[in-house]
Fold this protein.
Amino acid sequence: MILTPDFFARDTLTVARELPGHFLYRRTEGGIFRGIIAEVEAYHGLDDAGCHCAKGLTPRTRVMFGPPGHIYVYLIYGMYEMLNFVTMPDGFPAAVLIRGLLQPEFSKDGRHFEPLSKPADGPGKLTRLFRIDRQLNSLPLDRQTGLWVARGLLPAKLKTTPRIGIDYAGPWKHKPWRFVIEKL
């Protein structure tokens, strides 16, 4: 069962807490990648100094102000694509960054999946492995675009920590808005 825009139209922290355990799918010309979402971070609104939207509406952040359930992909350090899902109702800027996956797999036919030898335990690693780039930016999460999220498992244990790599965000860097599966 594919997660619909209604799932993403809710509070960003609720979405971020509930995404771990669900399956991320990516269809390419060669086949389909699949992995369990294992680590995410929430970015919520204009007041969140860690959020790209803290500086307002720009061509880069426009997608975050748009409808929920859309893809936000941006480049960091000139070499890593970062995958986010837009949350909240249309007009409120927020998204969840997908930081890592467990059990990445690949299937040529979409039915028989084989484990991949490369890990997807970082945001740059997962986008490279799953061939996710800025061409997907602003598209809806669904099978037609080739990137979607399907219902998975509820993790047995979920750890909450501050977000990573946003030292510039002042007190916002301490918000416990990173959610990581400790045990499936």
Notes: The chain is about 10% helix and 35% strand.
